[in-house]
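Hallway conversation turned thread

IA: we were arguing at lunch whether anyone had actually written out Short-chain dehydrogenase end to end. Turns out nobody had. So, for the record, here is the sequence (320 residues) and right after it the structure tokens. Reply here if something looks off.
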Amino acid sequence: MNMGNELRFDGKVAVVTGAGRGLGREFALLLASRGAAVIVNDIGSSVDAQRYAAGEKAPNPAGEVVEEIIAAGGRAKANTASVADPAGAASIVDDAVEAFGRIDIVINNAAVVLTEPFATMSLDMLTTSLEVNLKGPFLVAQRAWGHMLKQGGGRILNICSVDGVVFGNVNHSAYDAAKGGLAGLTRGMAIEGAEVGIAVNGLLPGAYTRGQKSVDQSLTPVKLIDMRPELVAPAACWLVHEACGENGAFFHSSSGRLSRVFVGVGEGFQDVPEHFSMERIRDNREQAHSYEPYVSPRTTQEFNEFRVRRFREINPPVEA
């Protein structure tokens, strides 16, 4: 197959968190194979030791990935700090700048999936999920932000999830809450980043990793389609390449597919203010509850413009 002009990362420096195994490992390997110098971050174990203990075979997975990259002729350095610790998160970015002189790319991939019915979920479980899945990306990205400002830009990819961002999943309330928060963080960062050349996007991956192996397999189509993590890596690397051009966008990738994920707002039922009531909603429920027609605003400003348009369609301004 003709690859055409190969997309490269020569001269770029990338940080990939949670890169010792699974998706993060594949992201780091592909970036390095295309010329990027990579900080491979992984704590080497999971904060959920009870679930993952059987799968923790390598005491230093980050180091092993680095060895693999160097053996292939690439450049990489291992970091074993926790993204949830402020000093640890800072060290990840600092290692990139000290070892390779700059930082151009951050892929916030480190995560923990804690499963428990909502009725019996502990506050500690929720806190742990928020610490790793939301606070961690915040800390790493914020540390990198200043360097990117000085360099004139950069690209950040937050690994989100269809759980929390789009749908929800059974026994995943803590994870859903954190990943939903990460989506909000992504949107806010993207708005501010647009003004300074920093692009921030979200990727919702589907892959069979050790995290997937430890949950109910009926919740995934792993037996029906190819869900190897290496089939997500091209999508992640595309989204952090300068040729991509997206900002504030979300995409789903699994099994060799990439597709946009977006928020739609139904046109809905717009009434005259003095007539709007529960009964009017009941009598117009089909229009109020319908998915179509819909709009997909990219910013709060665009959403507000939609609100004004719908209001004026029924309530035209009074001419002076």
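OS: looked through it. The chain has two domains: 13-261, 265-314.
IA: good, adding that to the notes. Strands lie at 13-16, 37-41, 75-79, 105-108, 154-159, 198-206, 250-254, 257-261, 265-266, 294-295.
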